[in-house]
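During the second year of the project, the team shifted from modelling isolated chains to modelling whole assemblies. The rationale, set out in the original proposal, was that interfaces cannot be judged from single-chain predictions alone. As a representative example for this report, we include one of the complexes processed in the last quarter. Its constituent sequences, exactly as entered into the pipeline, are reproduced here:
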Amino acid sequence: MDHIKVKAPATSANLGAGFDVFGMALQMPYDVIELVPHDSIEIEVDGVGGERIPTDPTKNTAGITASELGCTAKITVHKGIMPYSGLGSSAASAAGAAFGLNKLFDLGLSDNELIRAAVKGEEVVSGAAHADNVAPSLLGGFTIVHGEGVIRLDPPAIGIVAVLPDIFVETRVARSLLPQKVPLEDLVFNIGNASSLIIGMVTGNLELIGRSMQDRIIAPVRAKLIPGYDEVRESALRAGAAGVTISGSGPAMIAVCELGRRGQIADAMVDAFERNGIKSESFVTQPGGGAEIMGEHE
Amino acid sequence: MDHIKVKAPATSANLGAGFDVFGMALQMPYDVIELVPHDSIEIEVDGVGGERIPTDPTKNTAGITASELGCTAKITVHKGIMPYSGLGSSAASAAGAAFGLNKLFDLGLSDNELIRAAVKGEEVVSGAAHADNVAPSLLGGFTIVHGEGVIRLDPPAIGIVAVLPDIFVETRVARSLLPQKVPLEDLVFNIGNASSLIIGMVTGNLELIGRSMQDRIIAPVRAKLIPGYDEVRESALRAGAAGVTISGSGPAMIAVCELGRRGQIADAMVDAFERNGIKSESFVTQPGGGAEIMGEHE
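Output from the structure prediction step:
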């Protein structure tokens, strides 16, 4: 094979109570990554926010992933996911590169090995090695990253609205605000909600998923970086959302709802940001699959 | 009805990562509670460790539960569960009383209302109002207590060994040792393990349940109150246990395993305590049902 084109989806990590553990692949937006064998690792980036992404292979998540896998290739990343959005932009590029290189060079690597390589790239851009975006971007669906591996579930067919305000929050900064220690009672609250969210996923109970997205530890701190957060959240709930929280480290916000209510919730959230003087873009989507081949040439 | 006899099971709370959230009903041991309408609340207690339990209705979990429900009855508690064992002794008496009074006086209360009444009793003896033992003793199975209610799952048919060393740990003291705040990375570890434990319960994966019982926050602190804890734990794992941790606030320890390995694991744990100069009693059991009627008379 001398050319491969891969699609890797945006993902929403945390879902409230599952900080650094839960992640979900979204049907859209997504990155497209083209890979061609080459005598060195070379990166090109275009698409939304592409100018914000380093093309130095040692600073680019796709480049670092290639280096981890010991592959040299020319990697062209067509960004569909805005960088620094909280929608797993860097993870998608890394996951897509890992997935594509595995196919292109017939490496025969396991999902866990690919996740490990892609996480190395994440480490550089986010300052923390965590797989909560990489895993769902590779595997699709709803993923649980625990001490010893990754569990993948098929989420129910729920509606998802992601709204990205036009403000800049760097993942590193969002992480630096996090508390070093959390009160024991908040731990209990979050473990309860993380547990009930999983039961909601397993039983297809949208209401339970939505209620379980409440989080007392991370979202309240990160919400301070998003002007109008409370108003946007309440507008979404009034428009019929079952739950609303920050997507990953933000600034994107994510709402879960019935499929038929996505449009009205997206409008309500965009309007609420507008009232706070902030432009935003909405994605009306649903849980989706993982990285996949879009085209290849022998 | 003028007389009712109820059985209420021992329970194991936390299961490692699910502090104050997870609980599981055990087939044995159990309390038997007899209830007869009376012009005041009157408590009698006999059975194992009965002498340690106050019969003042305002200090006894069954008495407080009756008072919460507005019922006056003569309540005789035949203890099968040793008090201060970490096996939900006080919760079983409260759950059994709530369940029995609901039937005896035909109160028509919901499970959640019964749990709420029984938790009032727990509050007095343990110093914290939590339903992680009361819920499984009432409902049976594996329970998740979250912010807005209780979820019940049917656990798989796994083997359980509970070993109770002959040392005294008061629930209040065990709670007072707990950290007020926990490091964020331990939160992530515990949310990951709590999540994978639930997946283990849902899919019947014993190995995943066992591994997920690891906990970095509570068990390490409480283990200090149990001489020989590490040796007992390692002995159980060597004898084939999939996971071992402290049951509730201890000092009982609980191991999960294949049904056929329970005997050898019980022996290994009792022997390990013996080597540390501590006598212990083992219960070879499995997940069980909740409170139930053993007999009634019109």
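Chain A has two domains: 3-152, 159-285. Chain A has a mean pLDDT of 94.
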